[in-house]
Amino acid sequence: MRIFTAVELPDAIRDTLDDRLARLLGSARGIQTVAKEHPHVTVRFLGVVDPRRISVVLGVLKRATGSIRSTNVGVRGLGAFPRPEQPRVLWAGLKDPHGTLAALEAAHSEELAALGYERDDRPFKAHVTLARIRKGQRPEPRFVERLVAAAGADEAFGAFPVERITVYESQLGRGPSGGPLYSPLARFPLRTTNHSKD
Fold it and tell me: DSSP letter at 168?
């Protein structure tokens, strides 16, 4: 089982991002969009987990999640990895004034390290993956121009409370358009806090 933890996005923000992505892409080809029901904020990717260990893994994830306080985050800004001028992955950014998402990733990583899961050496950067450039494809210059302009605009797409995480199983190639199929295995709440009304 391929497992990861994530924060789900509200439907209203998903709709807003979907509309904005459609305008950004226009008629550009060679780009694989993330299915509308899939956008989320990945917190920790575990990789392959032995099904016999899943109950233990879920237990530590539940404990780690419950140690972090809930808060509001904003979805803001568009960009691309490695950079807008040479895009491979398109994303929407997160404004997280209380550092909740980074705290979740650190808590999950610390608990999972005790089970033998290696920490990710890369710095955590919370984002919502929107689309990927297909392998072997070169983005059209007009699309890159629109993306560079959008990356400098710092657009706001709404805010929402982070109150729980979802543990997903990812099944490669099982999705409706040949991408991954994400199946929720469990949902765990964060601690409640006054920050949820910020």
Answer: E
Distance from CA of residue 71 to its chain's centroid? 17
Q: Which of 120, 116, 118 is nearest to 53 (CA)?
A: 116
- The domains located in the chain, with CATH, are 2-191 (3.90.1140.10)
| Residues with catalytic function | 40, 127
CA-based angle 27:20:177, to the nearest 5? 60
Question: For residue 188, which of 67, 41, 45, 56 has the smallest C-alpha distance?
Answer: 67
Average pLDDT over residues 157-177: 85
Q: How far apart are CA 151 and CA 175, in angstroms?
A: 29
8-state DSSP, 9: P
**Cβ neighbours of 71 (radius 10 Å):** 22
Banded model confidence at residue 178, pLDDT cuts 50, 70, 90: low
pLDDT digits over 97-116, tens only?
A: 999 999 999 999 999 999 99
The closest alpha carbon to 125, from 170, 165, 89, belongs to 89
Q: What is the dihedral of CA 6, 185, 36, 7, to 10 degrees?
A: -20
Count CB neighbours of 154 within 10 A: 11
The residue with tokens 């999640």 is: 65
**pLDDT, tens digit (0-9, with 9 covering 90-100), for 43-54:** 999 999 999 999
